[in-house]
Amino acid sequence: MSHLLPPVGPQRTLALAQLTNSVGDGAYYVTSAVYFTHVVGLAPARIGLGLTVAWAVGSVVGVPLGRVADRRGPRGTAVLLALTTGSAVASFLFVRGFLPFLLAACLYATAQSGLAAARQALLAGLVAKEERTGALAHLQSTLNAGLAVGAALGGLALSHGSRPAYLGVFTIDALSFLLCALLLSRLPAVAPVPAVRGVKLEVLRDRPYAVVTLLNAVLLLRMPLLGLGLPLWITERTDAPAWLVSALFVLNTGAVMLFQVRTARSVSGLPTAARAIRRSGVLMLLTCGIFPLSAGRSPWVAVAVLVGGSVVLVAAEMLQSAGSWQIGFDLAPAGRIGEYQGFFGTGTTVARTLGPLTLTGLLVGMGALGWVLLGGLFLAASYALSPVTRWAAGTRREQDAAPAPAPVAAQAAT
To answer: What is the mean pLDDT of residues 363-388?
Structure first.
């Protein structure tokens, strides 16, 4: 099991910081919907609207926050954003209506998006380029372990069902971000990068990187597939027991925890990253061909089919994750890692925002044909990513060959 632990030093500290707040987040994720509906009294439709608006705001603000991490230093920015996230979670304890919920959710999503970008910039400054994908694999493994532990804690609160139990979960999540901030503050500082004259948010004008981000967002539809599409399919279209939804979640998180690091070892540059994503696309097509076979079967046959499809799904997920990490980092110019990772991270928000509507229409509305169309979409996006990545890499070589603009001296604080 020693291969699951990152090397001693900055990588292990980053993993511990990830573990602390992912435990809190795991408990929050499984209890928040029940808390806001049954304790606060918000309608489910309003919760959904509020979270959609919040993550849309967070995805937009995450890009300039990533730029702040580049210009002001990623360690200090990450610490500040971790503290802000903890404060946002704590504010949920006092929410009593929709408007306060919306404001707190916007603060939470904005801080989370910025924190993710700042962490990536911090990792880029502390870990050698050839070790970044492996480091991210360790962080993903740690994330899943923390979410599983947190989900178990949240399950205890759900079984208790009282307001104090839910408030305890939010308190744990808020404190977890305080501990995360403390751990991040112990990391070595990464020097800020001076601004370049005449250049603001360069990533917004980088068309190749924008197309890469868009295609990656399509591939990230696998995220709401596990959390929404598959549960709806199981309960609406099959005779499998409802508890299978939880079992498949445990299967997914456990497999990622155990095998993500090993899977990422096959990715070491843009060519191998593109190859991993193509393989992921083929496996996603196979997954989308397996799941519809569960409809109209006896309960235990349906269970066997769904478990088999979930095994293929998690293999595809790990390959796609490793490949996208490598591509997202390698195509980001030095000195703009935070800005570019903030933009690349909007793919996750797009998938979470548009995914539920897309998957509901395809899988619940169209059945087996919807699965086939979804699998074709995954395959097409995965294969399209290869030439687009080569295009983007070519523009990077052209930029490297051109003379660099003169940096502007850092402005004194006023």
So the answer is: 94
